[in-house]
Amino acid sequence: MAATGTMRRSFGSLAFSISKRAFSTSPSPVDANGLKSMNLFSAINHALQIALESDPRAYVFGEDVSFGGVFRCTTGLADRFGKGRVFNTPLCEQGIVGFGIGLAAMGNRAIAEIQFADYIYPAFDQIVNEAAKFRYRSGNQFNCGGLTIRAPYGAVGHGGHYHSQSPESFFCHVPGIKVVIPRSPKQAKGLLLSCIRDPNPIVFFEPKWLYRLAVEEVPEHDYMLPLSEAEVIRQGTDITLVGWGAQLAVMEQACIDAEKEGISCELIDLRTLLPWDKETVEASVRKTGRLLVSHEAPVTGGFGAEISASMVERCFLRLEAPVARVCGLDTPFPLVFEPFYMPTKNKILDAIKSTVNY
């Protein structure tokens, strides 16, 4: 455990030093419409501020959160709300989630941070055997619905096999929890507030690649976005593309290039993976007759397989080509070979053309 902790802290320092050199985190002015330019980590920070302000039962805790965390998502919260509500924990993910379950079971809003999603595995038992089953095993007499587990996930450009994994599909197999992944700052703020206030335990994966790269006009006020409701972010007629998180930006670029070649792509952000919005995806696939799913996680057993199987069951007679999947490879996440591993724009574009011309 000590070796693991050292690895995490050294990588965290690297990530922070890069962010300090390359990006400004100074506040942006609010425009006349109440919008403020924010990157994704600032939007997360603002959502946490609102959650703590609006509910005295809300607590934020995890490794290093009191000084702002590796990615600075909790910067200033301990100073503003006190270290009784925003506090560090030992380097023990099982303990972090176990504590969160107990805190939520007592009627509080427990917002637990796992420093990297790669290290959520020690807490796997607490999430799938305790949090997910708490309400069911008590016959709805007790629950830990106030638990939200935040975790940075996915590629970061230099993370390698211990800081780049996308473990969402593991949790999509577990009834009793929800799994949510935002694609942008505006989405992150609204979805996180919905998760914190939802009456079910939720795992909220944050695409670390976008923490500072994604910038958007975000409402300053308190708002929530619906869970389990996919969003069609690009209308099209020839093929449906489905994704989530940072992969949406890659897929959108592929859609733009495909349009130059006369292919009309409909792009859907799933947003919530469990329970997911089958109806929106089905309606799109029935219209286009073709489906492509893309995610960073390895292809075998990835959530794209569930989407593919469900759409074959629901739309078999409407499909004009096999469902395409453009995903990570069935290997540990590599370091120097990350560009070969990632589902890139060109890989997606090739799959679009192959599917449309099938």
Automatic annotation (TrEMBL):
Q: Which cofactor does it need?
A: thiamine diphosphate
Q: Which GO terms describe its biological process?
A: branched-chain amino acid catabolic process; response to nutrient
Q: What is the top EC class of this enzyme, as a single word?
A: oxidoreductase
Q: Key word Oxidoreductase present in the record?
A: yes
Q: Which UniProt keywords apply?
A: Mitochondrion, Oxidoreductase, Transit peptide
- A Pfam family in this protein? Transketolase_C
Biological source species:
Vitis vinifera
Q: Which InterPro entries match?
A: THDP-binding, Transketo_C/PFOR_II, Transketolase-like_Pyr-bd, Transketolase_C
Q: Which GO terms describe its cellular component?
A: branched-chain alpha-ketoacid dehydrogenase complex; mitochondrial matrix
Q: What is the lineage of its organism?
A: Eukaryota, Viridiplantae, Streptophyta, Embryophyta, Tracheophyta
Judging by the UniProt lineage, the source's domain of life is: Eukaryota
Its UniProt entry gives the catalysed reaction(s) as: N(6)-[(R)-lipoyl]-L-lysyl-[protein] + 3-methyl-2-oxobutanoate + H(+) = N(6)-[(R)-S(8)-2-methylpropanoyldihydrolipoyl]-L-lysyl-[protein] + CO2
Protein's recorded name: 3-methyl-2-oxobutanoate dehydrogenase (2-methylpropanoyl-transferring)
CDD domains referenced in this protein's UniProt entry, alphabetically: TPP_PYR_E1-PDHc-beta_like
* Annotated ranges, domain Transketolase-like pyrimidine-binding: 38-213
Single GO MF annotation: branched-chain 2-oxo acid dehydrogenase activity
How does the record describe its quaternary structure?
Heterotetramer of alpha and beta chains.
Localization, UniProt? Mitochondrion matrix
Q: Which PANTHER family match?
A: 2-OXOISOVALERATE DEHYDROGENASE SUBUNIT BETA, MITOCHONDRIAL, 2-OXOISOVALERATE DEHYDROGENASE SUBUNIT BETA-RELATED
Main localisation, per the record? mitochondrion
Query: Which EC numbers does the record give?
Result: 1.2.4.4
